[in-house]
Amino acid sequence: MYNPPGMVTARDGGGVGGVLIPMQFVWPYGGANVCLGGSFNGWTQLLRMSPVEGCPAVFQIIWSIAPGYHQYKFLVDGEWKHDEHQPYVSTAEFGIVNTVLLAVEPNNYMDGLNSGNSTRTSMDEDGQDNNASRLMGRVSDGALTGATPRITETDLQFSRHRVSVFLSTHTAYELLPESGKVVALDVDLPVKQAFHILHEQGIYMAPLCDSKKGQFVGVLSAFDFILILRELGNHGSNLTEEELETHTIAAWKEGKAYLNRQIDGHGRAFSKPLVHAGPYDSMKDIALKILQHNVATIPIIHSSADGDTYPQLLHVASLSGILKCICRYFRHCSSSLPVLQLPICGIPVGTWVPKIGESDQRPFAMLRSSASLGAALNLLVQAQVSSIPIVDENDSLLDIYCRSDITALAKDKAYAHINLNEMTIQQALQLGQDSFSPYEQRSQRCQMCLRTDSLHRVMERLSNPGVRRLVVVEAGSKRLEGIVSLRDVFRFLLG
Questions:
Q1: Which of 284, 293, 323 has its CA nearest to residue 218?
Q2: Cβ-based neighbours of 192, under 8 Å, separated by 6 or more
Q3: Residue 397: helix, strand or coil by DSSP?
């Protein structure tokens, strides 16, 4: 035994039938000689770790251990240390701190993955499923009954705890790219020109600054453009297209009171303050703000302590950027998070098309390509969704119409020459595709996945730039089964 003084010996998970699971252990904090010790071998053997090629400060080892909970520690240059960024346990009696790990046997979760038929659960478009009883497996279709991969409450909470610890100990500064641009608009800019800028820059929102007040006051987004177009199409509106040429963002905000407003569940607008964060706020706080305030992005603003200097806009944070950090951090140890190995059909994540007979479920928002653009815009507002799948007569996926697609109408002032109720979604999508390169069309327009894809795979794809949702389709037929968005993933991971 080489137990250091006061070392706690934890009981191994035991394993089932002698099954061992290869796990990767990483010490990324440098040292000359690094070894691993743990309860998985009764603290009886030191395992020498090797530096990663090209990263001399990072040491790793892959070691097969039995399924179950384990404690481990690193011996770095003769001194016992634990990873402060991983879940840990401590003993008050001896003051000993050990990192904890859950080794999960993959077969426990993947059995029956390829059997059965389509699995659908009804949730709203943004993944707002408040039925906590579905946490432990919500599939009950035919052959999948009793065979759907499931996760225990303990494993679920363990996975969530690890993600929470990571997000709580990393700040907004880590979201800032090494190089890039951040576009902000002055409130004195004409509304028409502002949307031309959004279109030309290929962005769907921009923070608003008031140079007279010396502060950021709001955000202009594609959703605002939708509201403006609906107002222009309203025969009772006093706002003409000519007025739109000279109307500033501030005038629209004061006169029409649409900017910085949100639509509630009854279609009524209500004011909301600018939601922002500081560079030292944790990623978890930023993610929670995005979810709680139902916004797509949050400006990262640095303000001086005395308030005399103009605040600096450092970055516009999104769930995509935060998810990319999560995926990068857990890339080499995803197997230690049980929930990441589950297929998305086995956990309460995403919005799913209701099955036949589920009349009590909320309808899933989808449209045919022959529907009018006006109908699509109304549905985006009334259903409070950010995208609508476009399907054929067999409900097979053709494309997807998103809020951000509306900025394509700013090209050549197209909005001034169309009737929203006469232009079809197909025509609107074609207009938008003319604004994107072939690569952007392939990589961002209509990302799909299968219900059997693991949560880890879905997260990896959602972390790619420009991808905000994956459309779940049936293999072969591309029949629409649901949508998994960034919000869905974060609501599930953060509980």
A1: 293
A2: 244, 245, 247, 410, 413
A3: strand
For 454-457, the CB contacts below 8 A with 24+ separation are: 454/340, 454/341, 454/342, 454/343, 454/344, 455/339, 455/340, 455/341, 455/342, 455/343, 455/344, 455/347, 455/349, 455/489, 456/334, 456/340, 456/341
Nearest to 48 by CA among 40, 57, 37, 56: 37
Q: Are 172 and 196 in contact (CB under 8 A)?
A: no
Quote the tokens at residue 32: 């000359």
* More confidently predicted of 330 and 151: 330
Nearest residue to 392 (alpha-carbon basis) of 450, 453, 484, 473: 473
pLDDT of residue 465: 81
Residue 352: which of 138, 80, 74, 104 has the closest Cα? 138
φ, ψ (nearest 5 deg) of residue 403 = -55, -40
**CATH 2.60.40.10 domain position(s) in the chain:** 21-103
- Residue where the block lists tokens 């009018």: 372
Say yes or no: domain 21-103 is CATH 2.60.40.10: yes
Max Cα distance, the chain (Å): 84
Q: Does the structure show a pLDDT above 70 at 356? A: no
Give alpha helix (H) positions in 293-437: 319-329, 373-382, 425-433
Question: Comparing 172-186, 203-217, 362-376, 409-423, which segment has the lowest mean pLDDT?
Answer: 409-423
Here the tokens at position 15 are: 């394993």
pLDDT at 285 over 70: yes
Residue 471 is encoded by which pair of tokens? 């459309």
CB 369 within 8 A of CB 426: yes
Amino acid at 100: V
- Record: fold of 173-323: CBS-domain (3.10.580)
Residue 362 is classified by DSSP as P
DSSP letter assigned to residue 283: H
Q: Are 118 and 141 in contact (CB under 8 A)?
A: yes
Angle (CA) 469 473 475, round 5°? 140
| Residue recorded with tokens 């230690």 | 336
pTM, to two decimals: 0.65
**Which CATH fold would you assign to the domain 109-170+325-494?**
CBS-domain (3.10.580)
Classified as helix, coil or strand, 364 is coil
Tokens (6 digits) for 82: 């634990």
Sequence ranges of the chain with CATH classification 3.10.580.10? 109-170+325-494, 173-323
Give the whole-angstrom CA distance, residue 132 versus residue 279. Answer: 34
Measure the CA–CA gap between 190 and 245, rounded to whole angstroms. Answer: 7
Q: Is residue 467 a contact partner of residue 404, using CB atoms and an 8 Å limit?
A: no
The conformation of residue 313, written as its DSSP 8-state character, comes to: E
| Pair 439, 426: CB distance under 8 Å | no
Distance in Å from the first CA to the final CA of the chain? 41
